[in-house]
Amino acid sequence: MTIERINVDVFRAPVTRPVATSFGVMRDRPAVFVRIEDSDGAFGWGEIFANWPSAGAEHRARLLLEDIADLVLGRGVGAPGELWAGLTRETHVRALQCGEWGPFRQVIAGLDIAAHDLLARRAGVPLAKMLAPGGAAESVPVYASGLHVSAATDAIAAAREAGVRAFKVKIGFDAMRDMADLRMLCADLGEGEGLMADANQAWTLSEALRFVETAGDLGLGWLEEPIGADAPADAWHTLAQASSIPLAAGENIVGHADFTRAVQGGALAVVQPDVAKWGGVGGCIGVAREALEAGLNYCPHFLGGGIGLAASAHLLAAAGGPGMLELDANDNPLRDAFFAQGPAARGDFVIGARPGLGIEALPEEIARYRTLSRETAKG
What pTM was computed for the model? Predict the structure, then answer.
């Protein structure tokens, strides 16, 4: 069967409290959802990364419609991963011409998610089961993330009430205040609870070294992206050797070769590819299995809408291991509307028995946030 139709919908939901990171502030919640349909009427849903920059959502939608769709329409979905590999190869010169490697990778990742959803639907099984026919987890534990370290107390309390036992806070703002807030949050943890910290690439190596020396007694579960994802391997090794806190990264690593170097390099304890930023389902399941085989922890990164969250959960369920699913604790109707009982019940994301990602259509309640809706079809 060939792909006959592509639908792209862009949404922007206003928020009362912006999401602050060390590199900038998200003042609304965007999402780009893509639906592909084949000549037999089978369909699949995907999501394209759109958190950054602020104009990214509309740009990526138009990139798909005006620069990539001609390579998609009329081609077969094929075996899992074929669409991603073909589009990556065929768009190389286009991405090189404009230097927009990230947007091209993100659009292709969203299409790969949709292709895997379609194939699992045709097989009549959940995506996790298609990826791991020998057995996939029925649910995966979540941890609450996206919390500014200075304003995390109430959000952690709410997550705790929902059964969540691990929490990740954003740091990299003011060193002294960050440390004071971390100490307070750690002191308030209950039995069996854990706290992680994410610097979002805020520091130089020397700044990161000062942090791990000062925070070494806190018992943090991991320290995420303390330095740039593109920092030299020697810098990551130096930091890992000096740190008693496990290091985590992956959302800003791209390519099989770079992930293999990261997995085998010895600096990381936690590997975190983002299904909507690079690789889609096919690329990320390979990274997950490689990380687990190397004795590392696989915890998929995600901070977007409901489709990408579901894809991340199915990936984790298929990969196995002790990893947790990232669940942004900030308000996001473009995520929550997809899950009637909320995205997590008693601290777990339940995979369910519905085929594919288990998503039939976009929820009606998010229609008011739509900023763009386009369809393009073969012929």
Answer: 0.97
